Amino acid sequence: MKTTGTTRSPGAALAALAGAQFTVMLATSIVNVALPQIRSGVGLSDGATTWVVNAYGLAFGALLLAGGRAADLLGRRRILLVGLGVFAASSLAAGLASSSPVLIAARAVQGLGAAAIAPAALALVMEVFPPGPGRGKALGVWGAVSGAGGAAGVLLGGVLTQAWGWQWIFYTVAIGAALVLAAAAASVPRAPAQVSGRFDMLGTATVTLALTALVWGLTTARRTGWSDPSVLGSFAVTAALPTAFVLVERRHPHPLLPPRVLRTGRVAAGNVLMALLGSVWIALFFFLPLYQQQVLGDSPLATGLGQLPLAFANMLGSTLAPRISRRIGATVMVTGALLTEAAGLLWLSRISAHGSYAVDVLGPSILIGLGLSIAFVQLTALSVEGVPAQDAGLAGGLVNTTRQVGGAIGLAVLATLAGTATTHAATHQPHLEALTAGYRTAFAISSAVLAATAALALGLSRRRTAAPASDGPVPQPAAHH
Description:
Strand content: under 5%
Oligomer: single chain
Largest sheet: none
Number of domains: 2
Distance between the termini: 30 Å
Number of strands: 0
């Protein structure tokens, strides 16, 4: 692969950067299988149990843009290493936690670390691998570890919880982050910051508060209902703050999200499609393990092992994605991948309360893994296409933000609809049948969302617009010191 001259071993750098992304994705899903054990271990209430998941996702999604811009301003390698250090320390604190407030706070700090890691690592991949086949292969690796991280989280969560207890899911993440930190420090090249100027604190605070209010409102609505005053208040804040953000950005000489970024290449289209993909992605790894455990009666270990075919299909699809893209083109590839995943989810919508893993889960998992991985690789490439070097960290933060926020919205809506379907079915069906009806609803709607996304991709992903010559003051690369 052709790489920048500052990298002695691009393969080692890519391995470290992919390891950082894998660790972030692992932490997103590794707690799902262990939630019952975590609840009894630290005395969590029903509401507090959901915040073991939500605290991480909330901090992660709300701070990604800030993390991406900080990487551009302060140096991507520096922000990556600091983020990995914070991530490792907070993971250790979560494993040592003996009370629910400490555990939830540690998960929130984990999200803070992840918000620094993800955009910095993606920007460094683009920095080490310039446009061309080398970058395509690197993004294929990126996609493989991203999708595999979600599936591996369910597997490792089941294995570790059953073997040594829930604390070890956090200890393992801490050890992994520490190892990745050492590898990144040794292999990722030093480089000056890409942007000079002041950090947009007011813009960062505004967008962070807006995203926090949105994610908090959506996650709380699942527990209290959509008409709860606190939920309506959070949505009102979310609706008002974007206008304030636009006004703040217009007056700042170095805005957090310059309009030129969204007008570059197919960045806007890629992010719209990534948000829709994310709305289904995160929900999949929430509902599928629940079906396996609550309906099929699988143990945490068996549930985790059941994710292996999906993970292998994901890695295969990510490996093949760059080669397929060169042969058939990005638009056809994205559309086909989304339809493949939609077909797998439609197959899952036929699950039975008296079924089995081999009949109900195995085949759909392979289709979903292939479609998800190929779509993710290509949409990531679209979302950073043509972005100048000084905005690469921000672009990485933006695509991660749209996926994370899309996932929060999708999970909240799908969980509500699944719960409604289960409640309705429970009036005339046994418990397992009612649960299965809810899961079928979630998978069917997810399939419809992806089919609509595939249709949208045919139009949106073809639109190319050149980056504007001027968008107000353009940040310049920082001088070497």
